[in-house]
Amino acid sequence: MIAALLCLVGALLVWPSVGRGRPRRLVPAPGRRPDAARLLTGRAGLLLPALGVAAGGLVLSTPVVAGLAAGCAAVAGRAVQQRARAAAVERGTRALVEALGVLVAELRAGRPLGDATATAVDGCPDPRVARGLGPVLRLGEAPPGADPTLVRIAAAVRLSARTGCSLAGVAAAVEDDLRARLRAEEELRSAVAGPRASATVLAGLPVLGLLMGSGVGADPWRVLTTTGPGTVLLVLGVALELAGITWTGRLVRRAVTA
Prior knowledge:
This protein is mostly helical. The protein has 11 helices and no strands. The chain has helices at about 1-15, 35-40, 45-60, 65-110, 115-120, 125-140, 150-165, 165-190, 195-215, 220-225, 230-255.
């Protein structure tokens, strides 16, 4: 039983997320050594809390409860990381939209590309996006693994340099496309807010049932952790709970990022 629970926790830690393999970073950082923050947002950020919760479960309860608690901690940590990554991507996109707006305004005012690029980079609210956008506008080359939007901007810069067409028009089209994408994502998040809230309420009903059982004088936790049938029911219940939460979260993310 313990080996099966540990295998379940390991599977949750290495399960691929939706959209993995697609370039999502606005600014790649090849060759950089991972710092503490980068480690905490990766697999170590899931493994360390899971091990800590498992150790606490071993001290306070049974090994089965420790394994289940570690699995729940892994799922919760994964959800937090995915929301943080999605929020970072959205902030980068909004910063890129603002920088492109400044660039288009400067170019249409008749300023040279170098001066317009400097103004757009200085006005970008996200330093990471500014570091990635500056070389793209100056050199017309996107670094390896860059966001597809930066690749499109680099192609527009090269096309403008070779043919003399207006870079302001192409940059304005990219800006409008990004704004439309942000509006669509906001509408989708609003549309799935109700189902997500319902899923959260349903996920909390088993805990409410345990509290109500304890309130009427029963001891459901002792039955679930100290008896054979109760342990089997506890494992099955938690497994179904984690599977339902993971499945619902993947459906919501797939709808938002589609």
